[in-house]
Amino acid sequence: MAYGTPTTPADVEPYYTRIRHGRAPTPELLADLVRRYNAIGGTSPLAERTAAQVSGIAKALEALAPGKFDVRFGSKYEPPLLEEIAETFRTDGITVVIGMALAPHSSSMSTDQYMDRARGALGEGIDFRAIGAWWDAPGFLELIAQRVRDALATIPPERLATTEVLFSAHSLPEKILANGDTYPVQLRTSAERAAALANVERWDIAWQSAGRTADPWIGPDILEVLRTKHAQGVTDIVSCPIGFVADHLEVLFDIDIEAQGVADELGLNLVRTASLNADPAFTDVLANVIQSVSL
Predict the structure, then answer these.
(1) Is 237 in contact with 203 (CB distance < 8 Å)?
(2) Residue 16 C-beta-side C-alpha neighbours within 13 Å
(3) 262 contacts: CB under 8 Å, gap ≥ 6
(4) Which pLDDT band holds residue 79 (cuts at 50, 70, 90)?
(5) pLDDT for the residue numbered 212
(6) pLDDT of residue 166
(7) Do 6 and 24 form a contact (C-beta atoms < 8 A)?
(8) Rounded distance between C-alpha atoms, residue 72 and residue 81, angstroms
(9) DSSP for the chain, written as a single string
(10) How far apart are the C-alpha atoms of 14 and 23, rounded to whole Å?
């Protein structure tokens, strides 16, 4: 399961309306979202990236256990919706369903919602096995660390002493913290371990892509952090959006355009780590997680 993305410019408004639980966006909000999609080419490549990831997971699972797994994709906000896919499992007589969200960290306001919706759609009589956070799955942080090392290799050696790695994930409303949500702890712990694997001493975390709502969201925001790091004498930043597993709006616009714009304004060199997308080493990691839950 994944968040979903509009596949054509005409799909942006209905997609945004679903995100807002049936409330149409104001013209200003819609124009802002369209502006951001236009800046990355009109639509996001996320649908294509996700399809390739799902295909890669299916291929890896078939290699692990021929004929055992039937892999289907459902989206939170864009067809095919996860409820529709859950219904096809029931119709086809499948009695065990494993749910995985394509996000390494879990939260009550993100991945838990996928699982609740899937569980409700499947109904009684189906053994639903929800996979929670999988950032600590064997091999995942090693892939992140290698991408960090690759990005660091592009920075002149004489500037490495003033270079910092900035790990980021999608912000969520601060109200999740009142209920003990461990999402921020997961981000910091995964960043700490990835940094250690990459032999990085100077690193920090930041939050990005906060929603346009009146509620306060978890911070500090990455744009604010870039300004702070520059003021502290940092010359180069390796941006590692560890909370995202594919190229999409939050990476291609929020990092590559918006954060890059702030970096350029400051004279700060910003290099982003390559996204995982459908790297077979990554889809193998996910397939192994699924296989372990099926045993």
Answers:
(1) no
(2) 20
(3) 223, 226, 227, 268
(4) very high
(5) 82
(6) 98
(7) no
(8) 11
(9) -B----SSGGGHHHHHHHHTTTPPPPHHHHHHHHHHHHHTTSS-THHHHHHHHHHHHHHHHHHHSTTT------BSSSSSBHHHHHHHHHHTT--EEEE--S-SS--TTTHHHHHHHHHHHH-TT-EEEE----TTSTTHHHHHHHHHHHHHTTS-GGGGGGEEEEEEEE--BGGGGGGT--HHHHHHHHHHHHHHHTT--SEEEEEE---SSSS-BSS-BHHHHHHHHHHTT--EEEEE-TT--S-SHHHHTIIIIIIHHHHHHHT-EEEEPPP-TT-HHHHHHHHHHHHHHH-
(10) 10
For the record, the structure tokens of 23 come out as: 């409330």
Using alpha carbons, list the distances in angstroms from residue 3 to 75, 103, 128, 141, 157: 6, 9, 20, 22, 39
The domain ranges of the chain are: 140-272
Read off the pLDDT band of 100 (50, 70, 90).
Answer: very high
Angstrom distance (rounded) from CA 123 to CA 108? 21
Closest of 174, 212, 187 to residue 106, by C-alpha = 187
The mean of the pLDDT values for the chain is: 97
Residue 57: which of 106, 88, 102 has the closest Cα? 102
CATH classification for the domain delimited by 140-272, as one of 3.40.50.720, 1.10.10.60, 3.40.50.1400, 1.10.760.10: 3.40.50.1400
Place of tokens 């009142």: 178
* Rounded average pLDDT over 249-266: 98
Please give the structure tokens belonging to residue 260: 């890059």
